[in-house]
Amino acid sequence: MFTSDLTKLSVVSRALSQCGHFMLTEGYNPWDSKLERIKNTMGDHPDYLKLFLSTHNFILRGDGALPWDYRHYIAIMAAARHQCDYLVDIQKEMFLEHGGDSAWLQGLDCVPDKLRSLNEINKILAHRPWLLCKSHIIRLTKESNWSLAELVHAIVILAHFHSLASFVFGCGINDQDDPDAPVNNSNVEPEVRVDQLMERMRTLSQREEEFSVEEQTQRFLRVDHRDQTIDIENSRVLKQTSGLGHFIEDTEFTYQDFQRRGETGDFPTFRVQVSLSFND
């Protein structure tokens, strides 16, 4: 049984690793207008855009262990965890177009227990991924009847939409009311000439020379503890007022620093000190 599951995992992993070279041509247009804002933003990097779209389409519509309605609902859960209305609205529409039960859109209370059981790893992957361990996988496969192939596919969808939500927020896409409106780049600085850049670097170097190395180190370490914490209350209010709360459980579970400066971490880490030069 264990060998069979490993074989399934290997097959799914190989398929997903090849998705960058895979383009769907039957029944689905990768240049779907629903992703217009994302495509416009990535348009300056056509090679990356092509790989992104092929990956995105493969995860949602390519061969895999999960039915299409499950895929889109898992995407809704992932995007809702990051309060990304733009992605949630797209995936809700796609969910219904591919035979999804409209009652499920009323919230997690209305979905099958198997699907709802993903909430635990969804919140962990979204906010504190270092907490994910094999016990979560065992619990889902043994108690919630997820096959290993299904679970791998679900985790890939969760991770994909968590990162995509960050991209959407980082580029201001989620804040655009007009779907066809261009991305606002008004805050981007104009092109700086090399001589201007060198002058700025000289100015910064002169400022640093005003302090000794020890003083600079002390200034770096003197960080107000309040600046290292996350305003949990504000995060909680956002989750309750965003209109996506019915897709979220445990709203108090939010981002937490992995390891704060000057403190010993609770989780083992692997660090490598590497010295490189431009000649390497």
From TrEMBL:
Stretches of the chain forming a coiled coil according to its record: none
One GO CC term on file: cytoplasm
Keyword Cytoplasm: yes
One GO biological process term: regulation of response to reactive oxygen species
Localisation per UniProt entry: Cytoplasm
An annotated Gene Ontology molecular function: L-leucine binding
Protein name: Sestrin
Keyword Ion transport: no
Swiss-Prot/TrEMBL catalytic activity: a hydroperoxide + L-cysteinyl-[protein] = S-hydroxy-L-cysteinyl-[protein] + an alcohol
Keywords from the UniProt entry: Cytoplasm, Oxidoreductase
Natural source organism: Cloeon dipterum
Family: Belongs to the sestrin family.
Annotated transmembrane regions: none
